[in-house]
User: Fold these one by one.
Assistant:
Number 1:
Amino acid sequence: MKIVFSQRKLLDSINIVQRAISPRTTLPILEGILIATEKDVVKIVATDLQLGIETFIDAKIIEQGSVVVPSRIFSDIIRRLPEGDIEFTVDSGYKIEMKTFNSVINLQGLDAREYPELERIEEINPIEIEERILKDMINRTIFSVSVDETRPVYTGALFEQEEDNITIACLDGYRLAVRKDKTDMSAQRTEVVIPGKSLDEVSKIIGNTDKKLSIIIGEKHVLFDLGYTRIISRLLEGDFLSYRQIIPQDYSIRVKVDTHLLQSSIERACLIAREGENNLIKFSIKEDKMVITSNSEIGNIFEEVPILLEGNELDIAFNGRYFLDILKAIEDDEICLDFTTNINPCVVRPLDGREDYTYLLLPVRVFI
Amino acid sequence: MKIVFSQRKLLDSINIVQRAISPRTTLPILEGILIATEKDVVKIVATDLQLGIETFIDAKIIEQGSVVVPSRIFSDIIRRLPEGDIEFTVDSGYKIEMKTFNSVINLQGLDAREYPELERIEEINPIEIEERILKDMINRTIFSVSVDETRPVYTGALFEQEEDNITIACLDGYRLAVRKDKTDMSAQRTEVVIPGKSLDEVSKIIGNTDKKLSIIIGEKHVLFDLGYTRIISRLLEGDFLSYRQIIPQDYSIRVKVDTHLLQSSIERACLIAREGENNLIKFSIKEDKMVITSNSEIGNIFEEVPILLEGNELDIAFNGRYFLDILKAIEDDEICLDFTTNINPCVVRPLDGREDYTYLLLPVRVFI
């Protein structure tokens, strides 16, 4: 096997596929990256068996072949080589030689036949979406994914498509994050659960551009096809809560508030609250202001945020960190907080009746 | 006690003095920052008893007084308050109240009389030096300070002044870094050892400007007077090696080399070497090139760097990390490496005979 790579292109490809390598794998071959020629292009692949990434690069192929390279040292070396050509040769014993104008590096590779095949998914009924829209939807919901491995389905995000709506919903025991957007019309309804970690890596690989990518849902896998790069993830099995049923449709109290003022007041309150238990902060919603307080052994804080109130006054308590996560995920300058009682969830929605986001947070019950 | 601070000025001052606070102190009062009015300015102080920093800020003093504030939470809160005025009040029980237009924060402070006094040093015979020159001298030597606490004097840097020369020298068991520069003429000779940690903090506080600061050497302390801020450090006791005696004056082999080419070749060699022992890299100095090699269980590397050689060919081995530290501290594009034999140190010097830096590194003895 013999290939002449451009250092820049090879490094870009390795940076992409490396996201699929798990830092703690028990299968040594999975610490490697597969490099294989496919006719006139080179395929670079990595996987942790849950998530697989393959990307294709142009290179000058002198002799066809394939090898698995040790990923960490290989990427460290490629990163440190000067821009320009790298002559990459592999002998029959999988010994790798990399040559530039003043360096020769030898590493031991592994037999590519030992490397697991990525799942093939038939590319039918692709869902097409702009990269920046998908990136945004992921980044604004993924923080609500559960970290509790005992109920694995909730470590994933519910991904739905129906007609021309696309939705991502994430929930753990305390909060729900839902983002909606538009795609092309689709005849069939899709509803799958994608691991949070896979979506997180997808959002890091895709750009902030209006270039479209295709999402193809298979039996047990999902494929994100970016053209030059394909990301294949297993789906999670199990029943996901019908999240629509837990979003209250009515409210008796609506607070309109400036997102940034609310966020900075809660941030300060959290500094005091983090020294106590549960990051507990209290809201006291009054006629024209919301008073936010917290206290712990180190002291106490009292914040006032101007609001517009519809409905009655209310005292309610939350985990301040969770509330901050929601506020940080919102792009609007002003939002609605909808309440019913101090034991019902708070629903955070856009001011103007748009339905592109809904966040829900359970209050903490306290003897106020 | 009542003061109106500007949030911005207070935050800047806290960021400076906080560098003296040790993350693991056994004296609770040293986790605090002293805030005390002194006539019409406010003094902000922190110390770990080794290093003390005090800075002065303008503020509207309504009632004189002093208090020790808990540093971590205090700085976190000040950082998160909006720009503008902070009304800072302390009652007789050291209860602190901070008020802005929409926040009220209460913290418990401590009695300022419990706070240790910083050492007073009589400001005689100041050594005047531009901030950027001192910053540079520190940053380009401090990496050679020893981390071995069993010989404390070498955890410090030797600071010398004689006539119009100023020198900083740091050494551990394997290497020596010396930087020289010019100051005003001085009648007396100064030679003290300043803790590496103190110099490191000094270099972070001073700017990259040509503003001058004064260094005043006391009996057991040194004072860096920046005008608005004063940094006081203990000196280290003990005999520091006469480092001039260990720098070979002669050489039999001189290599002239491009600093950046050498650095990037050694960086790559270190990637392979780090998997083995001692970060061992080997130089084979030949007529017109230096061959740098290293090998470990993961593979091997062979690098060629063009050189100009005076003298005989030589094979010699080094700890590659130590060699890199030296190269990173050098601003010249080309340097001299001077050798005698493969068991004598390598001396790194400027090409043009300048004496502003000298680095020395002991080779590693191997059966080449």
Number 2:
Amino acid sequence: MRIYDVTLTISPTLPVWPGDPPVDLHRVSKMEEGEVCNVTRMNISVHTGTHVDAPYHFLAKGKTVETLDLKTLTGRAYVVEISNVDVVTAADIEAADIPPRTKRVLFKTRNSNHWTKNHSQFNTNFVGLSADAAKYLVERGVKLVGVDYLSVAPYEDTIPTHQILLKAGVIIVEGLDLSKISQGRYTFYCLPLKIAKADGAPARAMLIGV
Amino acid sequence: MRIYDVTLTISPTLPVWPGDPPVDLHRVSKMEEGEVCNVTRMNISVHTGTHVDAPYHFLAKGKTVETLDLKTLTGRAYVVEISNVDVVTAADIEAADIPPRTKRVLFKTRNSNHWTKNHSQFNTNFVGLSADAAKYLVERGVKLVGVDYLSVAPYEDTIPTHQILLKAGVIIVEGLDLSKISQGRYTFYCLPLKIAKADGAPARAMLIGV
């Protein structure tokens, strides 16, 4: 059984959404200053690094992140590699031969190359999913969609893709590092922090080879 | 397959270590004010709620949390109920008949009662593990120890228990809500945030019945 950690490391150099403050980590208790132990505080957006979007992120009356079902966040998943596109469309997904009845789909695109290169500046030219891709995934019965950049939707058109998926109860996982992952079947574990009434939560995510 | 979420909810009423600022969650983007989406920020200690301690928490040259092995953080575990003590000692653990070769032990004590009662004030009278309990667990070959309050060590004597476990490479998981869990065998998944160079990390943790 091999475990693949597909989580981005939360650090001050992790790219954040344009306009957001950078990741802020600071030690408030330091052993080298005579304290009993080291203690770090963090001040971050709940959409930092590898994270989950709850419906409330884009739906004013949507469910919040602590209510998302752990049964959807864990289980069999398919990693599909679509490497040659700027936007993933329904046609791209249809052509990709995802196994029938797949409930969790993780998209590996050229975005994952960023994570092998100490990527620290947000790249607005990332690959996202089009609105028709979102509709297609909902119609196929997909319950969880994962992507390898910090948003599931193209930078210039964030609303439709998010709303279509979130209205249908699809869990969105953003910021996966799939650079070391080959296309195929895995077991996926994505455990987001349980944050009261929040629109999202940072998570740790891993794939296990099947 | 039944999933039990054993994670505390991160909210402003969650008790924090005496002297620490409370959990700070605030929405910095609000749909009701015309924004495209809701976005929450959080400002918390990495030792908030259900969390993992890395060696660096109590050892000036210890490993930091992003390097902890996911193989230790996930796998078969035993929940042992020790309900009638103020401090868990080696003798208490020895008397508890934990199955041989158990690598992960989670202690359910009277602490778990707090989590059923909207507990919000830190209780310094919580049940912790004595230094001799820590030594006994290390000698047994235990690799992960979980507890149901916010520290593995008694409030008045934090250093020895932490240092003995962390020096031996034992992962400490604190702040588990075991109130709904019966003694017995489970599969445990504890996925902490992957925070660069940190002394700990908040986590989501679940048990699966076997």
Number 3:
Amino acid sequence: MKNVIVLLSGGLDSAVLLWLCKQRFEEVFAISFDYGQRHLVELKYAKELSKIAGVCEHIVVKLPHYSLLNDSSLLNLERDLSQSVESSVPQTYVPMRNLIFLAIASSFADEKGIENIAIGVHALDSPYPDCRPEFITSAESAINAGSSYVSKTKRRISIFAPFLGMTKGEIVNLGKSLGVPFEKTYSCYAGTEPPCGKCLACTQREKALFEAKITLR
Amino acid sequence: MKNVIVLLSGGLDSAVLLWLCKQRFEEVFAISFDYGQRHLVELKYAKELSKIAGVCEHIVVKLPHYSLLNDSSLLNLERDLSQSVESSVPQTYVPMRNLIFLAIASSFADEKGIENIAIGVHALDSPYPDCRPEFITSAESAINAGSSYVSKTKRRISIFAPFLGMTKGEIVNLGKSLGVPFEKTYSCYAGTEPPCGKCLACTQREKALFEAKITLR
């Protein structure tokens, strides 16, 4: 079956991923997470992007346990967002976020028989451990080993992570060719409208859009 | 560091695991999940067991997304609990439950620097795909690949699954030698007090307790 569930934050990368999946798969679901992130406003953009893309279903999942964890500057408003990308693991790392997101997406995949889970991680310019190829490979193994769908059907659930070897600039160029409405995406860690323009997410986004000669309306 | 976070349902197996961890580790945390299970009453037992065992902290995590998934007879009250253990995957399977539980436990492990996650799965007499050794091994790989704690410290987070090669009878005998208060555990899928005595969890429990010559007060 050519179906997929896309992890959709509402940001630039996951929007390009959603448009790519619309092209590659017959049936597209989207899933977004409310984990108490500083930039919860991104979910409004995820909803709008899902609507424009015409997905079968946009699932929004709450993860209340993250209120108990607050080392991350994306979860704790008293933490500073200004740390640079050079650190080994940035302050914006949210503990095991991608594993939790993939595991929950896989629970929907398992029950609904969705054979692909798409995630917009890119390792080349990302400092997060859970964006690396070795993480994606082992998460896929764990999902397949634990799934009743796989056990019953002898089929596989694949993680589709097409941006793993791409830079943010290349992702934006792909999005341009796919007609992604970049003005409907939101990437700012601070969660302000308009975006702060200063955080790592804003500066990386602006650089990539500038280099791809994209001017937002 | 000899610390551990124990996945504690309030059932017989996880109680034995908790007592074993009290013996093996210096610092013991417990984590339980409210995922809308039919037998939510088990959390009351988990709380009481945590208190008796004297854990550092008992974390209870809500997983509201399971209300959107209802193929499992543990989540959907209209489904029958009576299916036997012989089926390839039982009706009581909850999609990707153990991966989600381990991933969330690992988010606490990652932030608090807890180097072991204990889970009471036993493969010998369990029909669930997410109770098999190959699942545990791959989940451990995914956790280590995605963790910032591992990335920063170059240490490991291990999954401690000491019951993998044991039968339920052997687990009960171990619990007996450790002084587990079996009367404070709860295993019934139906969620009634007293337990229904008829579901798979009840019959397996009674058989194991009978064979170990344990009479509950």
Number 4:
Amino acid sequence: MDNAARHGDPSSVARQADSVLSPDPEKFGLFLVGARGAIATTILHGLEAMRAGTPPIGLVTETGMFANVRLADPARFRCSGWDVAGDVHRAASDLARTGVLPHDLVELAAALRDRFEMDLAPGVPEPEDEDLVDPQSAERLKLPPARMVDALRHDLREWLQEPRMRRGVVVYLASAERSRPLPPGWDNPEANPLDLLEVAPETISRSLLYGAAAIAEGLPYINFTSAPGASAAAMSGWAKRVGVPVFGNDGKTGETLLKTALAPMFRDRHLNVMSWEGYNMLGNRDGAALTDPIRALGKVANKDAVLHEILPNPRLHTGVRIDFVPSLHDWKTAMDYVHFEGFLGTHMSLQFTWHGSDSALAAPLVIDLARIAMLAQDRGEAGAFAPAAAFFKNPLGTREQDFHRQMAMLHSWILGG
Amino acid sequence: MDNAARHGDPSSVARQADSVLSPDPEKFGLFLVGARGAIATTILHGLEAMRAGTPPIGLVTETGMFANVRLADPARFRCSGWDVAGDVHRAASDLARTGVLPHDLVELAAALRDRFEMDLAPGVPEPEDEDLVDPQSAERLKLPPARMVDALRHDLREWLQEPRMRRGVVVYLASAERSRPLPPGWDNPEANPLDLLEVAPETISRSLLYGAAAIAEGLPYINFTSAPGASAAAMSGWAKRVGVPVFGNDGKTGETLLKTALAPMFRDRHLNVMSWEGYNMLGNRDGAALTDPIRALGKVANKDAVLHEILPNPRLHTGVRIDFVPSLHDWKTAMDYVHFEGFLGTHMSLQFTWHGSDSALAAPLVIDLARIAMLAQDRGEAGAFAPAAAFFKNPLGTREQDFHRQMAMLHSWILGG
Amino acid sequence: MDNAARHGDPSSVARQADSVLSPDPEKFGLFLVGARGAIATTILHGLEAMRAGTPPIGLVTETGMFANVRLADPARFRCSGWDVAGDVHRAASDLARTGVLPHDLVELAAALRDRFEMDLAPGVPEPEDEDLVDPQSAERLKLPPARMVDALRHDLREWLQEPRMRRGVVVYLASAERSRPLPPGWDNPEANPLDLLEVAPETISRSLLYGAAAIAEGLPYINFTSAPGASAAAMSGWAKRVGVPVFGNDGKTGETLLKTALAPMFRDRHLNVMSWEGYNMLGNRDGAALTDPIRALGKVANKDAVLHEILPNPRLHTGVRIDFVPSLHDWKTAMDYVHFEGFLGTHMSLQFTWHGSDSALAAPLVIDLARIAMLAQDRGEAGAFAPAAAFFKNPLGTREQDFHRQMAMLHSWILGG
Amino acid sequence: MDNAARHGDPSSVARQADSVLSPDPEKFGLFLVGARGAIATTILHGLEAMRAGTPPIGLVTETGMFANVRLADPARFRCSGWDVAGDVHRAASDLARTGVLPHDLVELAAALRDRFEMDLAPGVPEPEDEDLVDPQSAERLKLPPARMVDALRHDLREWLQEPRMRRGVVVYLASAERSRPLPPGWDNPEANPLDLLEVAPETISRSLLYGAAAIAEGLPYINFTSAPGASAAAMSGWAKRVGVPVFGNDGKTGETLLKTALAPMFRDRHLNVMSWEGYNMLGNRDGAALTDPIRALGKVANKDAVLHEILPNPRLHTGVRIDFVPSLHDWKTAMDYVHFEGFLGTHMSLQFTWHGSDSALAAPLVIDLARIAMLAQDRGEAGAFAPAAAFFKNPLGTREQDFHRQMAMLHSWILGG
């Protein structure tokens, strides 16, 4: 695949799409946890739109930085995955009504959604959600954790049997999980996660089960949600030993992206940020989930920590609020107030309002990460993959939170390949 | 002077101040054009405050990046310069009332201001301002340009005769100049500016006259205003030949700083900025000057160009307005609206409001540049000095406008010294 | 028609729609100047949507204030009018893509648009636009003004011959006109406008021609654009004598509405507003027209004057900018900065950002005004109609600009009927 | 006192000040609970500044509405009151450093503060604060409630013995109280509060004790804090019987003022507000107190309720957050996001940022209320005084929350006097 001079050439993906018709094109499985959610639905439709010639706006892997790298062609991605409830037709029409997916696209993709639905597997719900999930997923709740992992691995093997589908990645896109302590042994980098599953089903994060299944099948695992999936020491240690790269945590799509792009300016200009207060409003399923303080815990901590890592002021005051505002649907509006001190202690301020579609911001990053993950695997990377730090609120393998330095890390890795 | 671990150690300047009492301390001349203006007044008082222990917030040269570099001690800076009108006592009390300078500091520095006033020289006004300037400056207006430069050189030599004052820098801080075409010959890098002064006095920018005087006296020249001073090919070419570094143009203090810190994020995330509209309001002398469209021309062009350099969209729509709002005094409020396209063409927006004191933002950068200029001269740098690009809207010697890459350039230069 | 308890009963219009099927329902002509523009297109579709049960959000005449008044049923409105160019199908699909009109509605209304198109008459363009208009409208440009008015009157009589269409109103919705001085005699309240048409065609505002035609045919005239149509003394004087009410000028839909709703709070709290700067961005045909400073003149003056009328500070600084930002399409984003002084001269600020669809804000007000105009005519009102001041930036017959007092005026008039 | 044409005549108060020198001027006691707090300190200094000629910006009673009413002259106000801790000199210098009080004024008023301090009485603390209060106030904590009221009445009688001090008002300005249920009997309008004090000291709100003392001494009581002081049925009933007017609750100074000034515009234009989210940041003692959720309860409820009273949408989503951001000191920054639906369900938004000094906004309203309270008493008003609703978040005697209608109520009362 020729990436050269791709930037500014919106037809590049369209041209690649022609090759789909060529004999024996390789396919890549994109196995999504939360497959009927807004992000997954946007990915499914977005890949289809790009096959039809829509320019790949939002894909980092379609900028000049990747011009000389051979990446998997998104036109050959095949989506499948798991979910515990929902209806992808309804998700799509909700996103069209909200202005995220074009109406025409949603109409044209009805058959694609039918095929996608048929291919999905039941998910592994959290026990607290038992009453909210579909019967097949409820069935999986009765299994002990080791059997859950077996079922997920079975699903993956089924999907990978499709002709010419030789590889893929697993992406965890479920809503923010309830915060749970790591079960015993999971903090040991020498342990094998498959030996750590003899625990009560309600004590273990689902992200660990999906991650274990992915790695056991040799597939890179991308933990895009606020969940421990890829960061447990046992998981990343094992991934490193068996040669599978893992990515995470918690996709950096909106307000936190802005924080990590702006805070370096204050640091570099020696302006003393005294307070940085961030107010997030969103109205989608993810927003509803975060009204549960136990679920919000990890996400708020991730959003909050980045500033303390970048800015030197030990007395920096930060606040993060996430409020569920149903009328916003998929639109996340963040209002931040930054109060800082300049020369001679003069008080100044910066205030910003970010108004973005959560799913339209996240979906292309997931496609990027899937492409990078397969490239990383080709290059022999294994375990926690630090060069993708720019994509995450709480990156694995590095404490660097400055977005621009993270991009420089990614650039170095690409050049060094 | 020990810069190690300076960052986070606000007492470092205070400690250095003790050494002022030591025998035979070297002094550094800070020769300011526009010496009774708000920025110069803030510099004068800020240096005094730092001598008394105020932490050096806002000084880039007091961050960790400069920890292992030997820089001139601000405690040993001695301010002087030129102005065509005004009263530094009034400037100081205006800045105190506006909340830029602390009241106590202004009261304590009355004697310092008296000494400063006594030392000032009349400036070289623009002919259009003849009726607004003091009699001594009006006198200088009658001279032909070559004699103006002689007078300025004479002033510099006077100031440099002060005991132990062996060196200094000239900083152009006057209000935005009226836009004038370069006089003949000034675009020739081989020419000697001193040979190009046989022109009508109303056809030549004052910044060229001050620059010629500075370089002729071997002093680095920092063009902090929107003016051609340091960028005329004849000036930078001559400076290179005679071994003097020159810096400019147009200090990057507020809204433009933010633009160049934020635009890279959109570029790197492949988000397509469609429109970026910037509205600037300010109420000081600089703001009043910019109500003259001929003066505003250069400044607006500088503020506007940065985005087109960073962002790839050839159809990017940008707007820059600068409005004089007297009630704001020294406070510059900028409101920017960024309209961008994400995945599948979804429209999103970022809006920000920046509320900062123009003078408190500019003053520490001038001190930084003076220190860097002397370091550069020590290291043998000459002509247009590109590594200081991060300080300017329209940097010399480079087209790089990405603030983070500019900071990386500066860092490389420091390490490479 | 029963308006009681309408507020909070979104089905009321739907119920009225049933009566359309009843024998012999009266019809009301809504004769729109600029019939293919965004506002007219939104009105056309909005009336259809309300017939199908969409709640009448945005209609002032559907609030409790009008509960006991007999108003024309919008379900019986029949749209027609004039335009000089354009295509209503394209206007509708543009508004759908921009998120103003629902996609389904635009699809369902194709036949309605076809009928509407067939019924339209060519408009009377401004001479400057000769090359931009359709051939039939260009033809009308060749007529002397008196013949233009005859042609427009002929169109009105044609439309009114439709069975059971006994009355109607004319609404001027064209883009902001180029500013022209009033031709001789038009400032005389005793004159008859039909006697004042012997002028060169390029010297007279089109809004005067449409207004003269409307009044000559006994139809109320609503001047919703920034144009002199209803305010020329000859026009309102004549309207008064012949018993026709006229309404205007310049619909108050967004930023100016907010200004007149907020400024009274500052006045009533005795907070001294020093500066009020308003920045408007919009991307539709109206926005493009306003890039012509001659067209923008009146609109900017109207937007600016309201504050000086409400706020007592004689040194109040105000600014109004209107910028054409194409990517915004029909969305008008206004950012205002209010700088005010409180107790002991303390400086404080209010800043707001308004993001609204120009057409979705204007369309229901036009329907309101049409209903109120017919009610006023029934009640014997004639000439400049002051009680509708709340709908206009530059209201006729009153200097009151306080939105809340304007609403109280309207309320009094309704009760007094 | 001549109020005519006062508006726009900033010297009016200064002129009145001359009369202070006249023989036998009457004095008015302003007895403040929380006398060393930021609001009280601002009142103390503000009255002094107005005596010296500072224009009465922010005083509603100095607008044209009161032109023909005889009000107490602020130049004759004499401040005294209670507090449980603090130091008025420190409060003043804090307010100067923060930009609320002018430096000169604070310097000039040192002797005034000394006299004020000498006159203050110990306050009645909440038991939870025992360790934070001064010894004299701690002493009062040991008294049973009935004795506390006796002590407060004794203080009032002392202050009123000053020559020519014949009357006064009591204003409750303490920080938001901890929420406590009303003790038995206080909900009975027929009861006498002095008979309801046989309760455990930790079960009764301090605002009830101060209120009982004020009314028992025949002084109007203004409950400016979020506390039950004036709204308990026993209190207002008794006040009515004994001929004393009472005012409250919870001064409407900033974000809530804006809400009640803006929401009527949405209602009147039939725009359907779906969500209104308000984020408040402040850094003063009041802000610190509100980090205690038990204290914040009442305030948040008051700020939230106003919208539901004005806007008709039964599914309106509202949110109110109050965050303590120490770097803001006395400056309250509120960021509100209003999401609303227009014609055909189009989603639009209004966002605002209010940046105001809490004390500079509150202080003039307290002076206004004191003047109005004495006027009301002169006119024979007694019990809950509804015409002052515009000053309060949770007004007594009316459910009207529309600021403009509240102002109309006040206007009517003034005219009717």
